[in-house]
Amino acid sequence: MPVPDRPFLIGVAGGTCAGKTVLCERLAHAAGDAQVALIRLDMYQIDRSHQAWDDRIGANYDHPDAYDWTLLNHHLALLAAGEPVPAPTYDFTVHNRSATVRWIHPAPVIIVEGILVLYEPALRDRFDLKIYIDSDEVLRFIRRLKCDVDERGRTQDSIINQYLATVRPGHQQYIEPSKRYADVVFPQGGLNEPAFDLLLARVRERPRLT
Q1: Which residues fall within 8 angstroms of residue 30, CB to CB, at 6 or more apart?
Q2: Domains in the chain: how many in total?
Q3: How would you write 99-122 as a 3-class SS string?
């Protein structure tokens, strides 16, 4: 088998709480850190340090303008060239980037997951394999509600208001239409075992980089 000269890039998109993170974390764990580098689109939300607290709370995080596409594309170019990158991290409790960076090192397979990774053209064109995770809207909302309450300290009313004001419209306008760019659509979310097994086999077959 020939040795590749660059990583195999996989994009995993889908609605909020569709199962993207579950699928990708399972893949990374099963294949091993030496085989897979995992990047979350949420890490590349724009820096909002210049914004007042109320403006950050009211921002639309389901709009393409909420993400630093330039930095993400630059980091992927560096990883493809064999260079590690200092990825930003995001603190959902303060609605802004934290001071911490996470170093991501090149790997045979690089997975980028997030709601809009199949929306942005320059990013989409980098992927060798494009996946869309499909999941029932009611289940996604319930998962979002539980996650935001348990992990982000938000109130139920604020979650519902945000879902109706920006999350659901953003899904309908930007995320759901991006499904047409997917090479593969996984129904039943991130716990679709046959789909997971097929993807894991594809990830494991990638040889180490030169």
Answers
A1: 200
A2: 1
A3: EEEEEECCCCEEEEECCCCCCCHH
